[in-house]
Amino acid sequence: MALSPEAARRRRRLYPGVIVAAVLAAGATVAGVLNDREDRDPATPGVQSSERIDPLGYDPAHDDALTARAAAGHSHVLHAKSPGGLFATARRVERHREDVEAAAEESGGVIDADTLEALVFLESGGRTDVVAGDGDPENAAGLTQILAETGQGLLGMEIDLARSRALTRTARRAQRRGRPAAARRALATRRRVDERFVPRRALEATVRYLRTAHEELGRDDLALVSYHMGIGNLQQVIAAYGEEDEPPYVRLYFDSTPQRHPQAWRRLSALGDDSSTYYWRVLAARAIMRLWREDRAELQRLEELHTNKASAEEVLHPPDDTEVFADPGAIEEARDDGDLEALPADLGFRVDRRMGELAPRVDARPQLYRALRPEALALARWIAAQVREISGVAAPLTMTSAVRDRRYQELLVGRNIEATSGYSLHTTGYAFDVLRRYPSRSQAVAFQFLLDRLQSLNLIAWVREPAAIHVTAASDAGRVEDPS
Asked: Would the pTM of this model clear 0.90, i.e. be above it?
């Protein structure tokens, strides 16, 4: 949605947006980033598989890889939240392709048709008459979700807000009374008094906004970021970053941490409306539409993996390609072979004394279940060290669950409403849970930052449960830099 700095603070989003599993970055589809199949190298293009990964560092040589990882890491919400489902959304968006291409051609190279189409996917899901928030047309509205204030002032659109509101109410009443024809007539009349609901006009206005933003910010990627964040808010982030006037967004995002450029990081974090990840989600939506046109079978496969769980954990470890431990004997064998490693005393987490408490019921010792895959263990160790470093709090986080087997999982289902009776990532050794209890706000903030950063690197999938944070490590998560 085109925003003024003031409007950006008042923006009310209709839905968080939608993303893909395979990401178009630097002109290449990099679906391999997302999958741990044995016949694929899970390493991100641009980062050799033998290299270590520093989640808190930044190297411009890896810009393409970082961009691909970020779009992949933020893709789950797109699959889970697309209105009517991912395929229905892609079908609606595709209908506007002719208008999208015409508008992109008028942008002067600021935005190409595929990216403008992705913006439509993210903003409205291809729905021309949608209004954000409580349905008041003063809010973001139309195919590209433009605020009335921005449309009237900055973009020079014809918007009779009073009539638009009245016709919106008329259409709503007609729908409630079972008069769809009357509702359609009201909406058709609304399009004549509010150009935001005319797809071609909305797209042309969006292009005008992006051209204005490009003049102010100097870069195509920054102009696109500002569509959600607002030009003024983004300029404040850039000023806080301080090292150059027009940094690529990948640098601005990944080089801003509580330790490096903390003022820029605080400004990005303070927005609190997903503005900082908007660019990645647009790129992901672009890749969704690429797969929609070129490989729907792959898109279907990815959608199923994304929607099986409340996070993207099955995308990281598809059930058909991932070893599951059937019983205590399988866990013992994996520990003997080094496929699982015991939680060490110096892990940095406090291990909940109840971890593995159901073990006697499967003729095992609780200690058997205090283990993880080496990759997940390395990641957990890194998280613990960085939370302590960033927060300055010595008291450790508490790990409540680690590996399980199917027999143990079946017992747990009857005791814990969060436990699944189907495919659980705990039974693979890649998942662990962290208690949502913190001795200070600074520790909670540090942990949240690390979760967000690791997700942006597609190194984890995570979900907030009532009592714990459930974290699943990617198969290349073991390459994080050793904090020692």
From this structure: no
Q: Quote the number of domains for the chain.
A: 2
Per the structure, the complete domain to which residue 285 belongs is given by 5-159+194-294
Model pLDDT for residues 353-375, shown as the tens digit of each residue:
999 999 999 999 999 999 999 99
SS3 (DSSP) at 146:
strand
Burial class (CB in 10 A: 0-12, 13-18, 19+), 200: middle
Cα distances from 330 to residues 313, 402, 405, 419, in angstroms, run: 22, 15, 8, 20
Mean pLDDT calculated for residue range 397-409:
96
Distance CA 119, CA 374 (A): 39
Rg (CA), the chain: 24
**Two structure tokens written together for 451:** 């979760």
Residues 6+ apart with CB under 8 A from 379: 454, 459, 460, 471, 473, 477, 478, 480
Q: How far apart are CA 452 and CA 444, in angstroms?
A: 12
Residue 118 to residue 125: CA distance in whole angstroms: 9
Examine the domain organization and report whether 49 and 119 are in the same domain.
Answer: yes
468 bridge partner residues: 435
439 pLDDT higher than 80: yes
